[in-house]
Amino acid sequence: MSCKAQLEPQKHYFCAMGTIKEAIDVLNQGGTILYPTDTIWGLGCDATNPEAVQKLIDLKGRDKSKSFIVLVDSFHMLERYVKDFPDVCYDLIDLATSPLTIIYDNPSGIAENAIAQDHTVGVRLTKHSVCIKLIKGIRKPIVSTSANFTNKTAPKSFDSIDKALIKVVDCVVEGNLDQPNHKPSTIIKIGTDSSVKVIR
Fold first, then answer.
1. Distance from C-alpha of 148 to C-alpha of 144, rounded to nearest angstrom
2. CA 134 to CA 172: how far, in whole Å?
3. Burial class (CB in 10 A: 0-12, 13-18, 19+), 169
4. pTM across the whole model
5. Could you tell me if 170 and 43 are in contact, meaning their C-beta atoms sit under 8 angstroms apart?
6. Cα–Cα distance between 185 and 98 in angstroms, integer?
7. Phi/psi of residue 135, each to 5°?
8. CA dist., res. 19 & res. 24, Å (int)
9. To the nearest 10°, the Cα dihedral for 181, 184, 185, 186?
């Protein structure tokens, strides 16, 4: 069974390890995906589509007041959605030896329901091959949130993902984690004085 190219309202489509192209089609149509990232298996959608983000919120059972992490594939894309980009972030990202998410103020073009109440958003420049292909395929950033229902443990492998969750996403993307140690990214916040605060 493969991901369906046409998503219909109120109808769910499931694919068992769909191709990157199928996943891109689903993302472009406002669907949700389960996919490998540079940290752990994640749930995602088009980060600029509020309807898709709401679908992900409902699927995960997530508190609407919480924001999502967003993945981009390049500095160019990051600068497109974050206008106030501190110069120190270039060095922090370049020198990071593990996945790094940075919280930025006042993002532009990201769905409002993917942004925190203080109008910030966490963005990670991903180096994972599957994520990069998905982002390049839709030419937009994608949401990344752990592949678990709210208040449940984040999975450390595909086999540990709740089967009920697998059944309600529109597409499961084929691929493996590139990193041997599967854990969430480090999250930091950059102050206006370029100070760094570690959130996680």
1. 12
2. 13
3. buried
4. 0.87
5. no
6. 7
7. -65, -45
8. 9
9. -110
Are 143 and 85 in contact by the 8 Å Cβ rule? The answer is no
Handedness of CA 108, 134, 63, 155 (dihedral sign): negative
pLDDT digits (tens, 9 = 90+) for 81-98: 998 888 888 999 999 888
Question: What's the pLDDT tens digit per position in 24-83?
Answer: 999 999 999 999 999 889 999 999 999 999 999 999 998 877 889 999 999 999 999 998
Distance between CA atoms of residues 168 and 151, nearest Å: 17
Q: Percent of the chain, pLDDT > 90?
A: 59
Residue 112's pLDDT band, with cuts at 50, 70 and 90, is very high
